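Page 37, continued from 36.
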C-alpha cells in the first residue's frame, strides 16, 4: 500500500527465458545469482550494496509502495547490467510503472448526512460545513433560506439533490411513526 497520495514512477526489471515467452518481473530468484560480494557489504550477510540496496526491502520504493524497484533510471541500468551478467539464459529489460493513490473520506461517522443517499459531492460539502442531521439543515434554512447556497461549491444542482433526498428522508420518518 502506498504511504502517501500521489503518482509514483517506478523503474522495474523484467526478464524472459531464452528470448522467448512473456516478460515477467524479476525478483530474488534471479537477483540471487549475482555473487554475494556484489550484493552485500559483508561477505554473505549485512546490508545490500547499491543497486541491490534500492531494490531491496530496505529501499525507499519498497518502504513506500511495497514494490521492488527504484525511482532512478540510473540505478535501474546498473541493476539490469549486473543481473544480466549473471543470468545468461535470460534477457532483461527495464520498464517504467506508474501507480497512483488518492485518499478520500468514507462515510463512516454514521451521522444522518453520512447515511443518506447523497452524491459524494453534496455529502462532502454538507459534512464539511458541519451539518450532521437534516433537522440542523432545516433550521438553518428556516433562518436563512439561502444558507446551503452559501456553502462554497453548493449550487442550484446540489440544492436540488439535497431537497429531493431530504424529502425522501422526511417521508420515511413519517411512515415510520
Ligand atoms: Zn457523518
Amino acid at each position: 500500500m502506498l504511504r502517501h497520495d500521489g503518482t509514483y514512477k517506478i523503474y522495474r526489471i523484467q526478464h524472459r527465458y531464452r528470448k522467448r515467452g512473456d516478460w515477467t518481473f524479476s525478483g530474488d530468484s534471479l537477483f540471487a545469482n549475482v555473487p554475494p560480494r556484489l550484493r552485500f557489504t559483508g561477505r554473505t550477510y549485512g546490508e545490500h550494496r547499491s543497486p541491490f540496496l534500492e531494490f531491496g526491502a530496505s529501499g525507499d520504493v519498497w518502504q513506500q509502495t511495497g514494490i521492488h524497484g527504484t525511482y532512478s533510471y540510473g540505478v535501474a541500468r546498473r541493476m539490469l547490467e549486473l543481473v544480466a551478467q549473471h543470468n545468461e539464459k535470460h534477457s532483461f529489460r527495464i520498464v517504467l510503472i506508474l501507480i497512483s493513490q488518492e485518499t478520500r473520506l468514507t462515510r463512516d461517522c454514521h451521522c444522518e448526512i453520512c447515511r443518506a443517499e447523497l452524491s459524494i459531492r453534496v455529502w462532502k460539502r454538507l459534512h464539511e460545513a458541519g451539518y450532521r442531521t437534516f433537522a440542523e439543515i432545516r433550521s438553518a434554512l428556516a433562518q436563512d433560506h439561502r444558507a446551503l447556497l452559501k456553502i462554497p461549491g453548493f449550487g442550484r444542482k446540489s440544492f436540488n439533490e439535497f431537497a429531493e433526498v431530504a424529502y425522501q428522508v422526511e417521508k420515511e420518518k413519517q411512515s415510520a411513526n
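The chain has two domains: 6-101, 112-169. Flag for discussion at group meeting. Strands lie at 6-17, 24-25, 90-101.
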